[in-house]
Specification:
- The chain is α+β, with helices and mostly antiparallel strands.
- The protein has helices spanning 32-43, 52-59, 61-70, 83-87, 116-126, 176-179, 196-210, 245-251, 257-274, and strands at 78-81, 97-101, 111-113, 136-140, 145-152, 163-166, 187-190, 215-223, 228-236.
- Strands 7-6-5-8-9 form a five-stranded antiparallel sheet. A four-stranded antiparallel sheet has the order 1-4-2-3.
- A hairpin with a 4-residue loop joins strand 8 (215-223) and strand 9.
- Mean pLDDT is 89; it is low at 278-294.
Length: 294
Amino acid sequence: RVTPAAEHKVLFGPLDYDFLYAIHSHAIFDGHELLAPAIAAYHGVPCLGSSATPRALSDDKVLAKHVAASLGIAVAKHKVISRSDLQNRDFSLPGSWIVKPRGGIASDAVMKVDNDADWRNALTAIADPRHEGRQFIAEEFVPGLNLTVPFVEGFPVGSFPPFEEHGRPGDNVLTNEGKRGLDNTYKSGPYQGPGAQEVLQATARMAAAISPFDYGRFDFRYDPETRRAVFIEVNIACNMAPASATYRSAALHGIKYEELVGHVLTYSLRRQNANRGGMDTPDRRPEGALTHSR
């Protein structure tokens, strides 16, 4: 029996469930990704993805970069846009930057800033009431490619190849409109060119540090001219629809969509049931979970 819901408030009502499947939501409030796993933990119910503590890395792009940097992974330079910055009409940073919500998803409200006029427009947009006061960050603009690496626990490390995501013409920035199919700027496909091994290795290192999380996707920018790959963010329990990079990467191994979904749910439930009463152990693979290699 499945009870679907699209609002967080359902979690506060009387629910009879033994597994909580909670994926990315478009809620604006801070900590929206932590709420479902925290409530599930309170009730002692398994929840898809990581526990609330490591899930914060998916919710907070700054925190994720700090963890990546502590592991020796290069990250994009960044700055939190403070309240005083918003009140300073002359605030700007030299160079080109990407301004976006600190806890945003699906490239929502992403802006590229190149000059003082752009900064004035960006600060005005940040102050828009629709953002409900959520924090924004400025992230250095790294020219080049968008590379994303799917990672599904229970499969051998490196099983899923990187995908290149193509953004809008010119700066190759990924936009919400492109991802939602409202324009034709977004497309993606398998990538094996320069930088692929670097982002695979960085993904393996970070995945080992934050495991268990069932499945996720690690995003990078790669500059072919400087051969520099920088970590941007991690998305835990991300989009796994048939058109997603996660499924399409699995499909390269002949894995059917229902097999991938079945594996993720089975792995997650058995992992958490096996660890009831004890701490999760990243290197334990639940017996019976689907594994597939080519």
